[in-house]
Specification:
- Helices cover about 45% and strands about 15% of the residues.
- It has about 350 residues and is of the alpha/beta class.
- Strands 1-3-4 form a three-stranded mixed beta sheet.
- It has helices at about 1-10, 20-40, 50-70, 80-95, 100-110, 115-130, 135-140, 160-165, 180-185, 220-225, 245-250, 290-300, 320-325, and strands spanning about 170-175, 175, 190-195, 210-215, 270-275, 285, 305-310, 315-320, 325-330, 335-340.
- It contains 13 helices and ten strands.
- The chain starts with a helix and ends in a 6-residue tail after the last strand.
Length: about 350
């Protein structure tokens, strides 16, 4: 913020003439714009906020100097054009309006510039939105980050949960073998696992995965394994140790990975009762739920996953943020459409 104030004051408070030459401003504008395009996106501590202010102030002052030379009798101040150019350049790139207006007013120290700056920023946003999205939004798509918009895509009312969900689902039984839990944690990266009953993984039709009973998180399973909460019969009373809420709090937020948890060969033949630790009332939705309804649930509550059920309360899939984020609406030249993206697994 301090650098932005220096940039604005340097270009807006300097004398009308003789501060900069048109040649130096032109060379600076071209080189700085090229460097900003080249360095943005690299894994280096750089950004676009200050470069866009400098570039906009440079070409804005060039326009003001041209107006001053063409109509010197009007007493045109190129510094004001520099301020407007900086606002237009930065607002067109990041599509900020009110917050950027406040920043620029504070930087120049003159509240009378509020209305002109707001008009310039609104025009820059409207013109930019007509052609494409803001540069930060475009970079999110290029990096394939599962970022959810504020609203569901407007063309997604005919997309249902059974089309969006991930399938097949990795599930756990209410009393599960320790070796199966360890194997799942080692080979799967999911954060939550549905807990089911009436399910035999060796005899499944690949469509449903047992009746839904609850949900247990990966972090909970690692804490239970670390505290040896298992026994040969699966009864909690026969476990060697006891676990309480404080054990989960002590492990948060850096839960030990499964590779750092020692489970012997004999202990892998034991059984773990998940019923006392699972969430018995997690969020679940019907396979006929629409994408906007699921989207609203994720945005309102901040969920990471929702279990999808059929009419018999059987698990048939699971929806995560990545499943929702891969549907994106594009705007170009006044046209609009929806596309399905590939989301990065990193």
């Amino acid at each position: 913020m301090a650098i932005a104030i220096i940039v604005i004051k340097r270009h807006c408070i300097l004398p009308v003439s003789g501060s900069f030459s048109p040649l130096s401003l032109s060379v600076f504008c071209f080189l700085y714009f090229w460097l900003a395009c080249w360095t943005y996106g690299l894994q280096v501590p750089s950004g676009l906020f200050i470069p866009m202010l400098l570039i906009g102030a440079a070409w804005g002052r060039l326009c003001g100097m041209l107006m001053y030379y063409l109509w010197p009798e009007l007493g045109i101040d190129p510094g004001k054009y520099a301020l407007v150019g900086a606002a237009a350049q930065l607002g067109g790139c990041v599509r900020m309006t009110i917050s950027l207006t406040v920043i620029l007013i504070e930087a120049c120290g003159n509240v009378t510039f509020g209305l002109p700056l707001m008009l310039v920023l609104m025009m820059a946003k409207w013109v930019g939105d007509f052609f494409n999205e803001g540069i930060y939004d475009m970079h999110i798509v290029l990096q394939r980050v599962p970022f959810l918009e504020w609203e569901a895509p407007p063309l997604s009312h005919n997309i249902f949960a059974k089309e969006v969900m991930s399938h097949p689902v990795v599930t756990l039984r209410e009393i599960e073998k320790v070796s199966n839990i360890v194997d799942i944690l080692r080979h799967e990266t999911h954060n939550g696992f549905p807990v089911v009953d009436e399910y035999d993984p060796d005899h499944t039709d690949g469509v449903q995965f047992g009746r839904f009973r609850g949900l247990i998180l990966r972090s909970q399973l690692t804490v239970l394994l670390q505290n040896k909460m298992f026994s040969p019969s699966g009864k909690l009373s026969e476990a060697r140790h006891r676990v309480c809420l404080q054990d989960f709090r002590d492990a948060y937020p850096r839960f030990n990975p499964i590779n750092q948890i020692n489970v012997s060969v004999n202990e892998q033949e034991y059984w773990m009762d998940l019923r006392p630790f699972m969430n018995i009332a997690p969020h679940g939705m019907s396979q006929e739920a629409s994408l906007p309804r699921i989207f609203q649930l994720f945005r309102a509550i901040g969920l990471r996953h929702v279990v999808i059920l059929n009419g018999r309360n059987q698990v048939i899939g699971i929806v995560t943020r990545k499943d929702l984020a891969r549907y994106r609406v594009w705007h170009h030249g006044g046209l609009m459409g929806m596309e399905e993206l590939h989301i990065s697994e990193r």
